[in-house]
Inverse folding.
């Protein structure tokens, strides 16, 4: 049994936190701002599917940070500092937020064009559902992004 409910996965016979990707416009709150702040509440998400995924994030989960807009690239790695809690920006109490912290900037950005051109990402939500702001990332997709970025494998 996993230490908590979904979305843990099994890697090498061990229960392992899930991987996620979050998207943000760099002119609004880029990865450098997250690094400067040290942590942030990931709030303001209103899309129903993105909210479903946000509710699945738990403390310790790994997060790829994607810049939207002109950049369109995965630029960094973050981690979840908390599980979901009521979004402080939502007076209705309907939505959740999670706290995130930076881990590392990727050695080089991995562009959306590179991801779309790679058959390993055919089923990746980033390719299939372009407007989705929070999405799961498989271990294989995570490793491929790190490989494309020139990052050492981590676990």
């Amino acid at each position: 049994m996993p230490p908590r409910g979904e979305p843990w996965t099994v890697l090498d016979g061990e229960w392992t936190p899930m991987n996620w990707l979050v998207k943000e416009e760099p002119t609004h709150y880029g990865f450098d701002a997250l690094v400067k702040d040290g942590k942030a509440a990931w709030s303001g998400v209103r899309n129903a599917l993105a909210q479903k995924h946000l509710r699945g994030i738990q403390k310790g989960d790994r997060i790829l940070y994607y810049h939207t807009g002109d950049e369109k690239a995965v630029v960094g790695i973050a981690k979840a500092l908390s599980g979901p809690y009521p979004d402080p920006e939502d007076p209705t109490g309907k939505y959740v937020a999670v706290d995130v912290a930076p881990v590392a900037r990727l050695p080089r950005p991995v562009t959306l064009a590179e991801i779309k051109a790679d058959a390993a990402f055919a089923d990746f939500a980033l390719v299939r559902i372009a407007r989705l702001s929070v999405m799961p990332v498989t271990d294989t997709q995570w490793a491929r992004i790190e490989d494309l970025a020139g990052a050492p494998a981590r676990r």
Remarks:
- Helices lie at 26-29, 31-37, 48-56, 112-117, 125-128, 139-149.
- Confidence is low (pLDDT under 50) at residues 1-7.
- The chain has one domain: 19-148.
